[in-house]
Amino acid sequence: MKIRLIAISLSFLILACSEGENCTNRELNITSLENEYGCTNTKNSDIEISEGYKIIRNQTEFEALNFGNCDPEIDFSKYDLIIGKYQLTTGNNSIDYDLVENCQTKNLILKIAFNQNETAEAPNVTYHALIPKLEIGQSISIEYAVQ
Q1: pLDDT 10s digits, 112-143
Q2: Which domain of life is it from (predicted)?
Q3: Which residues of 49-86 are buried (b: 16+ CB within 10 A; e: fewer)?
Q4: 66: left (phi over 0), alpha (psi -120 to 50) or beta
């Protein structure tokens, strides 16, 4: 009887604690240089970065980008700046961002959607997001969508 009771209890414990249960990815708030610091037309900024992205963690790194008319004092105790360039095949109307934290790994995924138009220009646009300060060992990946 004791063995049966232990086996049943163990079964309930295993079922109750199955990995991944109630694990839901979490959407995090992000902001931008436009919203926080009043910068304008940043997607057309000619920053000194090749296609791809960088994680900017302090003011010195930000100033080295030569961001043009946008030169705010960013609160890097609160934010990291993800910034990069992306070559498009048609004109761009806008860029949308979503930041998701993976519930199992705690790593971040920045989803960037380029909303296109029919113009023949093929811009190399600058994108950026001010994200919550990354924790030590936490990584971020970027997913692009052209719509």
Answers
A1: 999 999 998 889 999 999 999 999 999 999 99
A2: Bacteria
A3: beeebbebeeeeebeebebeebeeebebeebbbbbbbb
A4: left
